[in-house]
Amino acid sequence: MSNLIRGISENGGVVFCGVDSTEIVRKAEKLHTTSATCSAALGRLLTGVSLMGAMLKDDGDSITLRVSGGGPAGVVIACTDAHGNVKGCIDHPLVELPAKENGHLDVGGAVGKDGVLTVIRDNKLQKEPTVGQVPLVSGEIAEDITSYYAYSEQIPTVCALGVLVDKDLSIVCAGGYLLQLLPGATDAEITRLEQNIAAMPSVTEMLHAGKTPQDMMELAMAGFDPQILDTREVQYQCDCSEERTKNMLLSLGRKELEKLRDEDPRCEVVCHFCHTKYEFDLNELLAETAPDEK
């Protein structure tokens, strides 16, 4: 079964993207051994960036989200390709905070809100990535993504994200949706959408009850005759490799490699996103560089 769906209203004025990211967040929890609150923080960001990636037009494009809010969990990063496949990491994955008064995990407290959401869009047709940045609204992720679209791209957007964590720290369910208004939407259409969304249960309530991303779309876009554009499978997928890691080391230059070699000729590089370890002999790498190379 596909776990991500994209749709559009009959008149083309509203676009929707929804995902069941449960397996993505389960893999992230296993890789990073996150606490409940950090599972929710990283899981929400991975879900949000997957939705944003699925909205990209060109296969070679990618997006990186970086949340730096000054909270005890540190910086949270999530990356997506143009298909919605993601990877991510969090500085301090074991941070745990007491639940909020409503019983929900205190993601905003762990992430902090004294900082910024940075959005890096890498377009294969441009030499340099496009970087956008907005102040954090709450550190709860969904509101911050909504704010980014409103201020940086001037696109009216609704973003809803959720991660439900069990008492044993396992991920019960996770997912979200992104709904955007295209130019020309009428006041009546906007009011109808607001009413639809206000009447919807939370993302985790819907998923826990067995609802699918298509069910979310039909609830959010009731009265708009939504049509499915496409469905796809998305997953947690790291694109690191020995070759890419080797090229990264070579890019440091001969002088820097010599400094590292003098400390220890054996070099181990660990991927932040999937914790794969790559080992290199720095003398062998130096043999591949020109003697006068800087």
TrEMBL record:
Compartments it resides in: Cytoplasm
Disulfide topology: 238-240, 271-274
One Pfam family linked to the record: HSP33
Keyword list, A-Z: Chaperone, Cytoplasm, Disulfide bond, Redox-active center, Zinc
Matching CDD domains: Hsp33
Main subcellular location of this protein, as a coarse class: cytoplasm
Modification after translation, per record: Under oxidizing conditions two disulfide bonds are formed involving the reactive cysteines. Under reducing conditions zinc is bound to the reactive cysteines and the protein is inactive.
Protein task: Redox regulated molecular chaperone. Protects both thermally unfolding and oxidatively damaged proteins from irreversible aggregation. Plays an important role in the bacterial defense system toward oxidative stress.
Family: Belongs to the HSP33 family.
HAMAP family according to UniProt: HslO
Protein name per Swiss-Prot or TrEMBL: 33 kDa chaperonin
Organism in which the protein naturally occurs: Faecalibacterium butyricigenerans
Lineage of source species: Bacteria, Bacillati, Bacillota, Clostridia, Eubacteriales
